[in-house]
Amino acid sequence: MSIEFDNNMPIYLQIMNYIKRQIVTGTLKPGDKILSVRELAAELQINPNTIQRTFQELEREEIVETRRGLGRYVTSEESKIMEIKKEMAGALLDQFINGMKELGFANQDIVSIVAEAVTQSPELGQERGVNPT
Amino acid sequence: MSIEFDNNMPIYLQIMNYIKRQIVTGTLKPGDKILSVRELAAELQINPNTIQRTFQELEREEIVETRRGLGRYVTSEESKIMEIKKEMAGALLDQFINGMKELGFANQDIVSIVAEAVTQSPELGQERGVNPT
DNA sequence: CATAGTGTACTATTTAGCTATGACAGTGAC
DNA sequence: GTCACTGTCATAGCTAAATAGTACACTATG
Prior knowledge:
Two copies of one chain form a homodimer. Chain A has 133 residues and is mainly α.
């Protein structure tokens, strides 16, 4: 329902990722109506202008569609959604791998660390059937 | 010699990580003298005030020590350096694992993806003998 | 038609980050 | 002492991000 904001990154970008995550995981489905600018602003306690900027960026990336006077909707193109998911996962992966290498970790170290971290953490909000590639 | 700056994150934080990485990987060794405010400002094409802020933060984290009139030096406490390394690696790991789970990936997926990514990438600037835990 | 909800636009203000510039103080070498 | 380096401080200005508030245009409903 709310977001923990990181002060070192623009809010509108963090909300963008928040929405993208909802779309990618199926919380928001293709064609679904999105909360209005004013609704989301109220829910997240953020100024409507900031939400408006968030949505403009999402529309520029063709993730949402705007119907003036009606509202905004998640794109119906599932291929676009999969593309976004791959982008986001790829960005996370690159950041992690490159970061670990910059810290001096060897390839095998990295795999081991991930494997260990994963065995110690429970399968959280696993939604069977929504898991993609 | 230079940094690719991310516009969505304060420069002084990025330079902090840049210095920390050099210390953690041994490029800068315990007790080493660090580039002066003006030197680093010139090298990175950044205003000296911004570098000054970077160093103040690093000193606050007890990673560097200042001797007025002389310059700044990497802390001699190797335990502190190891601590920083663990912090940075842990932050990277958390961000990655949590991010992937938020995207809907299962634990085993995450491990597989990392394993595959790592096999496809060469062992870059591996510095044998500097690899810690 | 009027209404309520939608997206959109505009101006003004505040704040953090960064820059530009100058000045002062401590240290070691000459 | 002088010089050249160091860290430090202070002032001013610019920009992007975010806020606050108002207003306008479009759409469906009744």
